[in-house]
Amino acid sequence: MNADQLLNNSSSSSSTDRRLRILAKHLQSTSSSAMESNTVVSASPTSAAGGSVFAHIVQAPEDPILGVTVAYNKDPSPVKLNLGVGAYRTEEGKPLVLNVVRQAEQLLVNDSSRVKEYLPIVGLADFNKLSAKLILGPDSPAVQDNRVTTVQCLSGTGSLRVGAEFLARHYHERTIYIPVPTWGNHPKVFTLAGLSVKSYRYYDPTTRGLNFQGLLEDLQSAPSGAIVLLHACAHNPTGVDPTPQQWEQIRQLMRSKALLPFFDSAYQGFASGSLDADAQSVRMFVADGGECLVAQSYAKNMGLYGERVGALSIVCRAADVAGRVESQLKLVIRPMYSNPPIHGASIVATILKDRNMFHEWTLELKAMADRIISMRQQLFDALRARGTPGDWSHIIKQIGMFTFTGLNSEQVAFMRKEYHIYMTSDGRISMAGLSSRTVPHLTDAIHAAVTKVA
Ligand code: KET
């Protein structure tokens, strides 16, 4: 069945049909955009050379973020620099495994009572409880009242996907509003889960700040009950967050229209260096007694990228509701991957439950956040000293792992070709990939790009 047939064949309104229709629409738009970019090497299945039943498969484009690393890896240049994916590097440009993570792993390895049995469908119980407390606060009444159900998922992405699948199946309003711009995977995750994606204004390129008026207007005109995706802190890719007063206004508006908050918390601790300060937006919404979803990732703040550790929490109004919600989350998870992996969650639980290790983690996290902040200052100072045209103050004003430079896609392509500097085509650079040693090279490249490429 092709996308058209899928659309025509699914006119009834069961949830499976609905998902098929959304998927078909998605496939149609993907294949038409692939055709526009001349990437289609299409042939009918029967005319396949060599008779492969897959001969009609078209070459898919690389992922806009992870594909940057693929291109970087192929570049033989000794001066190449990867500022694409949001992954922390040391001053020496190396990936970092936190000391506290090494310690926790050692404890786990030395504990011969540990086995490799399957975890429950919802994951490691300790990990779930501690994760909920980490984001909602150690004394959160919602946690104490058992109104929160938390399930261990495959990092932030998996948590978003499980939450979205649950909402598509069980929530009455299937539209989700995402900010413009946002992390490139958001629309794909939500569409494929069966939600329909709409957007709200967020970033104003002229001020390089928040379009707060636009945001309020768009949420005001969203249908009552719609889901709203909010970046808990360190908005990706813009590095622009609402102030606490603006968050409060967003909260009031959303609650007055019964909009359902779905927080994506991929950078807790990376914005300010403080785990508690970076959780304020979420805690504000939970403190009013209302409901919300939170997807947490330990990829960045514990450096556990490849371990795929994260959690989805659904805060409900009552404990019995939370229990039933959890029973349905299990039905979402079981056919997707059965149950989550044990190692990464055990590392996190070991650290979160030990007072000393937790403290050491906060210090290492702060050191990572501080190094990023110092990179912002160094890059800003270097561009100023160089006399590079433009106001670069947004580099020091933005928050989190990324700077949304304002460089256009031609300038990005120029910097890749001439300077072997890799970043996403929207001009986002990962400050965590930069070091004192590489700031001058990046400065040269930006200077050349803005003076030579319009
Ligand atoms: N949410 C946001 C906002 C986000 O930036 C990422 C990752 C994730 C969720 C998912 O991370 P996970 O590894 O599933 O816990 N962002 C970086 C990496 C990526 O694109 O996968 C990035 O933007 O570079």
From TrEMBL:
GO molecular function: L-aspartate:2-oxoglutarate aminotransferase activity; pyridoxal phosphate binding
PROSITE patterns: AA_TRANSFER_CLASS_1 (PS00105)
Reaction equation(s) it catalyzes: L-aspartate + 2-oxoglutarate = oxaloacetate + L-glutamate
Aminotransferase class I/classII large domain sequence ranges: 80-446
Alphabetically ordered keywords of this record: Aminotransferase, Pyridoxal phosphate, Transferase
EC class of the enzyme, as a word: transferase
Family: Belongs to the class-I pyridoxal-phosphate-dependent aminotransferase family.
Protein name: Aspartate aminotransferase
Organism (species): Coffea arabica
Record gene name: LOC113704105
